[in-house]
Each structure stands twice: as structure tokens, then as C-alpha cells.
Amino acid sequence: MPHDTILPFELLNRASQAIKIAITIILCSYLSRVLLIAPFHLVQHEMTFDSADAGASLTYPMQCSALRKNGFVVIKNRPCKIVDMSTSKTGKHGHAKVHLVATDIFTGKKYEDLSPSTHNMDVPNVSRREYQLLDISDDGFLSLMTDDGDTKDDVPLPDNEVGQKITKLFKEEEKDTNVIVLTSMGEECAMEAKEAPNQG
Length: 200
Fold this sequence. Notes:
Elements: H1 3-56, E1 59-63, E2 72-75, E3 78-89, E4 96-104, E5 110-116, E6 120-124, E7 126-136, E8 141-145, E9 151-156, H2 161-172, E10 177-184, E11 187-195
Antiparallel strand pairs: 1-6, 2-3, 3-4, 4-5, 7-8, 7-10, 8-9, 10-11
């Protein structure tokens, strides 16, 4: 077969190979960008999710209309106990509003809030535990025994009637004393004291 009849086919083959190579280079370039950028987006999502989870463990959302008197709610970033609540309408076409009166479970400070009944509010996770009192340190901290026999020394003796009651029972009357500790949103406080039940 003459040489000049093969040449156009060779050129066509070379051209198609060049096009394939160019397409491959473009695809590789695109994929490398996607693969390099994607991990950063994933890391950002994971970090945001983790930080949200960390905060969520302290509180959970509840619709205003589902809150109840003597229940708990977060007002101005403080864990509070609801002492009074009422629902009212603002007008013919207005949404129902919930008026909350609550006290800080640690300080006793009074807070009020007015929100639409369909609005979600944060409710603090509150735990109440009873410990045996072992000692009161000179710097004003309670030494408490946990259920597993360890000592807990980070709860201060309250500067109020509860603190006076703890001191009276334990120091003056030398009674076996149990202390009830309230924990919420990273804070702890001794809320009550009572004579420990007789084991014998």
C-alpha cells in the first residue's frame, strides 16, 4: 500500500489520541481540585457538628406551650425553675403568648420572659444527687462520698440557710449528714441537708 494513503489515517489516530490525553488532563485537574477541597468542607462540618453536640448535652428544646409550672427553663442563659406561667392572646389575629416567671435554681434571682407559644425554648438538664458528708474543709468546701466510694471535694458550702443547716447538723450536733447537690449547665450547688437514715 502506498505511503501517502496511510498518512491521513495516522494523522487521524494521532489527533484522537491527543484529544483523549487533553480530556484526561482536564478531568485529572478537576478531580484533584475536588479531592483537595472536599476534606476541608468535611472537617468544617464535623467541627460544627461536634461543637453543637457539646452544647446540646446541657439543654434540650421544648415548645413554650409545653412548659409547666415547677418545671425548668433557660432564661438569659441561666437554669431556672418556673414559679408562675400564663398564656394570653395579643389580639384578634395575634399569636398566643406565654408569660413565664422563674427563679435561678442556684442564685434565686427572679427572671421573666414573654414568648410566642409556638416558640422553642431551651430546658436545662438538671440532676439531683444525695451524698454522704465526710467533712467541711477550712476553705469552705464540702467533702462528699460518691456512690462508688470516691470523694468529691469541689462543692462549696453555701453562704445561706442551707449552709447554716449543714454546719449545724454536721459540726454542732455531730449527726451523720447527707447533702443533696443540684447540677445543671456546668454548675453545682448544695441545695438541702438532712440527717442520714440510721443504718442499723
